[in-house]
Specification:
By secondary structure, the protein is mainly alpha-helical. It has four domains: 6-71 and 232-302, Rossmann fold (3-Layer(aba) Sandwich), CATH 3.40.50; 79-229, Rossmann fold, CATH 3.40.50; 316-370, Helicase, Ruva Protein, domain 3 (Orthogonal Bundle); 379-465, Arc Repressor Mutant, subunit A (Orthogonal Bundle), CATH 1.10.10.350. The chain has helices at 19-33, 53-66, 81-93, 104-116, 183-193, 206-219, 249-254, 259-267, 281-287, 302-315, 318-331, 339-352, 359-365, 367-370, 379-382, 387-402, 407-420, 425-437, 445-465; strands at residues 6-9, 38-43, 75-76, 97-100, 141-144, 151-156, 160-165, 173-175, 198-202, 225-229, 232-233, 298-299. The strands form five sheets. It has a three-stranded parallel beta sheet, covered by helices on one side. It has a three-stranded antiparallel beta sheet with strand order 4-5-8. Helix 2 (53-66) links the parallel strand 2 (38-43) and strand 3. The longest helix is centred in the C-terminal third of the chain and has 21 residues, at 445-465. The chain is elongated.
């Protein structure tokens, strides 16, 4: 086996990038990246009726958004069909496979009789040991000669030692009677040709592995290391489906979860590193391995996802977070922001990212700097703008015209102003919030004033008091 680790993600392009597939891709990416290896992508597009270019693009886009970069060109399984056929013919040539002339009707008749006699319906081809001289001039499939005695042992890195009796395995078809290779053959040939050293995939593929190992053995190829990971279940313990909520990665993107947070959360579904819940990509790549994987299914928990995402937003670089926020607005069809609004959003980012779990939450907090004058004042906030409060804001305006525009000085100015009028600070803050944001729930008035700047603050106060920006 190569000294370099090579993993792969091999989705079927029949729809979006499923959250379970994304987790499988992430595990393969982490395993390779943490060991200086290669992470490859193969599109398993042999099902021509269901595979679409749109689905392929959706998977590639989903991977790109999730931040899972890959090495080399993306491989199309369909385009390797000639190579798959050649391997089937090579197995036939060396006696490890045989021509089977049994028709579908004959196979179904065999199974019906087996069911009636309450014995195994595993088809045993009468052509396995037939003399080639007796072969008819008719279409035939090529079947692998599976050992009929003994056991196939999978030394699985997650599930442990898995033993399957060979008499439970059929002689798998490699090439159909129309000459097309089957998926099970294609997977093995592609993994071998791509130099895949570690196959990390869902434990629903465990039975396939026993059958695929027969091809490796017959070809004299070295087996990859297998790790079959548990599936993801909903909070009710049942297999993840539409009834549990979003299934596609793009749905999580459109709901405004940051990619870093989703990566972190998915890594914790079926794998753990002590009690660590929050970690960076660098830590995940350093820590990730088979020893932390669980056999039992992981449960998807939206509250935990939101909590992890909130931590990633809070820890994010401000410039990178601004870029992601603008990308979120674009992908969800929101209007482009002016350069002035982008600058305000950038200034506000240190304030906005605290306690925001998603981009919609962050943008909701940013309302004060994105809204256009004159502000639409919400009903609850409007109650803070009674005649007495408007009088207070009118009185406050000249003090702000002359104040030094630093947090310390603004705090001093407003505190002194409130004390001089024997007001609680809340009595001043409520109408200020309404004037500066049109809302009652906002970031701190000082944060808003510092982001908006003196000129804009005075203009907004003037809109409310009717005094203009005197």
């Amino acid at each position: 086996m190569s000294d370099q680790i090579v993993t792969r993600f091999a989705p079927s392009p029949t729809g979006f990038l499923h959250i379970g597939g994304a987790r499988t891709a992430l595990f393969n990416w982490l395993f390779a990246r943490g060991r200086g290896g290669k992470f490859l992508i193969r599109i398993e597009d042999t099902d021509r009726a269901r595979s679409t270019p749109e689905a392929t693009q959706a998977i590639i886009d989903g991977m790109a958004w999730l931040g899972l970069d890959h090495d080399g060109e993306i491989v199309s399984q369909f385009e390797q069909a000639e190579r798959h056929r050649a391997v089937a013919l090579e197995l036939l040539e060396k006696g490890a496979a045989y021509k089977c002339f049994s028709t579908q009707e004959e196979i179904e008749a065999f199974r019906e009789q087996a069911r009636a006699e309450k014995r195994s319906t595993l088809f045993q081809s009468p052509w396995r040991d037939a003399d080639p001289a007796s072969h008819p001039d008719a279409p035939y499939a090529i079947r692998l000669k599976t050992p009929q005695e003994g056991e196939t042992v999978i030394e699985d890195q997650v599930q442990g030692r898995v033993t399957i009796r060979n008499d439970q395995l059929d002689d798998m078809i490699l090439l159909r009677s129309d000459g097309t290779p089957v998926y099970m053959l294609a997977v093995v040939v592609d993994d071998h040709d791509m130099g895949v050293t570690h196959v990390i995939r869902g434990d629903d593929h465990l039975n396939n592995t026993a059958r695929q190992m027969g091809i490796y053995t017959a070809m004299g190829w070295e087996l990859p290391v297998y790790g079959h990971i548990s599936l993801i279940h909903g909070e009710d313990g049942k297999k993840l489906s539409k009834r549990h909520g979003a299934l596609g990665v793009e749905e999580y993107r459109d709901m405004g979860y940051p990619a870093a947070g989703l990566r972190n959360y998915l890594a914790r579904l079926g794998w753990s590193h002590g009690d660590d819940e929050y970690f960076t990509d660098a830590q995940a790549q350093e820590w990730f391995g088979f020893d932390g994987m669980n056999k039992s299914p992981a449960r998807f928990d939206f509250k935990k996802l939101a909590n992890i995402c909130g931590q990633h937003i809070a820890a994010a670089d401000n410039a990178a977070l601004l870029k992601e926020t603008l990308a979120f607005r674009e992908v969800t069809g929101q209007p482009a922001l002016s350069e002035q609004k982008i600058n305000l959003l950038s200034l506000a980012m240190p304030v906005l990212k605290e306690r925001a779990k998603t981009f919609p939450e962050l943008l909701d907090k940013a309302h004060f700097c994105l809204a256009e004058r004159p502000l639409q004042v919400e009903e609850k906030a409007a109650k803070s703008l009674d005649p007495v409060s408007i009088g207070i804001l009118t009185e406050l305006t000249p003090h702000l015209q002359n104040a030094s525009w630093t947090r310390q000085d603004l705090e001093g100015e407003l505190t002194t102003f409130a004390e001089a009028r024997e007001m609680k600070f809340g009595q001043l803050a409520a109408p200020l919030r309404a004037a500066l944001a049109g809302r009652s729930a906002t970031p701190s008035v000082y944060d808003m004033m510092l982001v908006l700047g003196r000129e804009e603050v005075l203009l907004r106060l003037g809109d409310v008091t009717g005094n203009g920006a005197a």
